[in-house]
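Hey all, sorry for the wall of text incoming. These are the two entities for the joint prediction.
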Amino acid sequence: MTPVQQALLVLLLPLASAAIIALFLRRAGALAAVVSVAACAGLAAVALMLVFGGARNFPASWEWLRLGDFSLSIGIKFDDLAALMLAIVAVVGLCVHVFSLGYMHDDGAKARFFGGLSIFMFSMLGIVFADNLFMIFIFWELVGFSSYLLINHYHERQSAADAAKKAFIVNRVGDFGFLLGIVMCYWLNGTVNLTTLAEHHVFSSAVPLLLFCGAVGKSAQLPLQVWLPDAMEGPTPVSALIHAATMVAAGIYMLCRIEPLMTPSALTVIMWTGTATALYAALCAITQRDIKKVLAYSTLSQLGYMVAAFGLGSLTVRHEVGGAAPEMAVAAGVGAAMFHLTTHAFFKALMFLGSGSVIYGCHHEQDIFKMGGLKSKMPLTFATFTIGVLAIIGMPYVAAGFFSKDAILHLAMEKNTAVFALLAFTAVLTSFYMVRLWILVFLGAPRSDEASHAHEGGLSMTLPLVLLAVLSVVGGYTAIYGHVFDGVWSLIPHAEGVSVLIVSLAVMTAGAGTAFVVYRPAGFDALEQKAPGLFGALVALKESFDLVYNYYVKKIQQRFAMLLNFLEQIGLAGLVIRGGSGLVGLLGLGARALHVGNLHAYVYWFLLGAALLWAYAAGVF
Amino acid sequence: MSTLPLDPLLLAIATPLAVAVAILLGLPKRHSIKLAYVGFAVPALVGLWCWANFPADLGAKYAFFSRYSTGLDGLGITLALGLNGVALPMFVLAGLVGFAAGVYAIQSNAERLKIYLMLLLVMQAGLMGVFASVDVFFFYFFHELALIPTFIMVGVWGGRDRGYAAMKMTIYLTAGAMLSLLGLIAIYVKSGGGGQTFDLIMLREALAADPIGVATQKHIFGLLLFGFGILVSLWPFHTWAPLGYGAAPSSAAMLHAGVLKKFGLYGLIQIALPLLPEGAKDWARVLAWLSLGNVLVVGFIAIAQRDLKQMLGYSSVMHMGYAFLGLACFSVLGVGGVVLLMVAHGLSVALLFLLATSIQQRTHTLDLTEMGGLAQKAPVLAAFFVAATFASIGLPGLANFWGELTIFVALWHFSPGFAAAAVAGVVISAVYGLRSVAAVFFGPPTEALQKVAATHPPGDLTWREKIPALVLLAALLFVGFWPQSLSRPLQSTLTASFRMLDAPRLAAGR
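and here's what came out:
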């Protein structure tokens, strides 16, 4: 198979699976699961062949629509960046598919679930392969749709229905800017092809900032972050795949795709948005009781890290080549962001699947204060989850998160001290809330019937955990990937000296230590008792955005709509039209006086009309 | 080119008409229904056949062209039938929606079904005729042929407020038709030169050589704009639409909102733009501002609706705003986008009205606040409705996306401000679309609904409802995945015979 055929096969396998499930397997959930998992396994195998086969930048583009001079293409840009993203999506996707076999085993709507997963894989892979902005936008909308379907899986719950709707609409708000940015880019540069744009484009800050709006929606950055915590209404494997590892990271991937278009002022905005999100979400995570919500806020925070890393921009480094050491700018932001995206995909998918395993084991209990003692009940989940925690808090050399977080901190230290301080403080918080979660879920004695009867899931659930745990350990050593991603890895900034290492050790220990001091495995929130003022402030901070948006939707938008509706019913349809019809009625009365019911009179009227018409046609007046 | 022994376009018009006449002459009900299937299927099949056999490089010509003498040839009136790249998509649309509406009407088992079907068949014949006519006289004649049955169907078979709705619709649409007739006659009168004619091809040639004076063009275009505009529910002349569609029986709503309403836009594209280019340019700003009324004002009004069909009516009015904006761009891209959007909107709105009736039959209400949780009882219905809603809010993979996207791109060149305002509409349509889906299908069922469900347990879609829905959804998906199937003929016709349209220039080239 040529690389193009391989890529098309990867893209179309999940689409075929979704189509087959939708058309024929609606009632055959078990078979649908098999079809979907088989398609995912097939695409993962072909994808890894493609990635490690080494073929890059092969030409593949098809014109899809042409009107006037406007032409839109579907094409493939397969460089190291795309290859890396493809590998992540394929591997994490496969893990989640297999995990779902166990987790969703007893679900009544399995066919819909697995069909949704397949549509998602198709849409996500489309973003990965896309060679132009319009194509990214097409699949961007489609991932939003699959996300809507899957959040809405338990649609009989009002909260799930609301969350799905919210996710789609909030994303649409971001896409408003994204689409305008694409259109503006088209008219400014005459093309939206990524390769052509990288070579030549008009300098403008508006374009990257508008495009960034799309990332703000999809990657849930401030102020559009509100949909992601609610999206946890979806089944846990969905949270792992879509709302942690891949789709929400698509915003960062897209930013890396358009990196050549960036301007310093755009980068500054992006950097601060990311930093603010990282800090805000970490503060919110501290007060959460729901295991998935903690992880959701943690995802937000880590996405903020990646966005901030991207915004920090390029770094001037010396390359010592044969004695000479020329200085050159390296897109270090891209390297650091993508590196963290990679390790985060592994460890966050691991933790979400781990939480799925916990929830499954505890018979759908999600409150961490009702868990406890799962260390002995679910040893494998405990071990793998612990690896995830070590990765996210950045345990040096043991787990992957350390390397990628270090790269970001190093970059921040070089570029912007304020951002560095805030990100370091975020790291303290991260370490604090993750250790809190870990203590409450796994240590001590079970605090509910569900927790005391917890049990490990089957092989289909443990196997993905193990695989992701291994990747969360070794994934930080870029050497294990061979040279296939060198185009990205060569951009990663590497700290020289030990200053960053000391900082990250210090922040990790500070956060974890505080958590050990504050929390004991108990059925109440110790922080709430020890510092109610602080706790209350954090809760208020978390709720502030939702309050504002709810106020807007309920009080402003709805009332504005009602007002317009009222004006239309009363003003337009009532007064103007009815009034108009009254006027016409009066005229009609007058006209009726002419209709005397006498045939002769009508003939005269007719002749008069005909004469007037003739006079007009003859040009008399 | 045509390998059929008959003229396919005439066949598509005459078959439903002949069936209607046969039913009128007293065919028994059983045979009437069988024959009605034929009457609805033939136009759809002819449409698909024409699509499949459409010549690749048509240029300025018409395909499947034929001319019949009418006895009024001296007045320049002949029955000239043919399809160009703009007419073809609409012709196919009319065939498909007509088929779906017809099949749905047959299964609806309405009272006085025979007369109902007869009226629908007449409407169908008129619709096929509108888009097949190359002669302005017959173009108008077929429109009236299709319009009059609509009024009767709303007035007799309609739902709540049918009397008022039918009256309002009649007044508005007749007024619109009269204004546009005035404009068309003015063109006929002013075309002067070598003998007056209604033949569009000759009119184009005559007016290309000897255009109407700019001042007169502006007047005539104004007449056509507001005449056709009322027919397409241009803001603020739209209030008939939500009311009418709310009251209309579903098949009539499908055919009118889906197809007949587009007559006005189609007339502006085929007649007004090429014959009155200066007038069109002059009115573009006004048109664009009014269209924003459709997109933003009516969009917000749609959010406030509690009645499902009213909501659909307003959303349909809102989407017409995009179409008008596309026209205002005055470019091949914009106008092509309008045609794409007309086809997509026709399919999706017909599907939505069909499904809304199916929902109403199960919930015994259209009030969004009294529904909920229907997806548990009718998952297939839910899936169709979700798909149709996502089509109408412009999800890629479904036809509407291409129409909206091309219009947005064209609009930026017209004015970035208008483009931004129009794209904001995308958020608004997501709000009301998803809100209605959630209100009908998701969450726990309301008490009111549980009471209804206790006495009339709601079932899922039957096959006789599914078949018309599938036809429409398949077409949406086909165009959604394969937009070239429509854009190629459009591109060929628009670039060849619409030379007056701007070729947008890229800023980079300046």
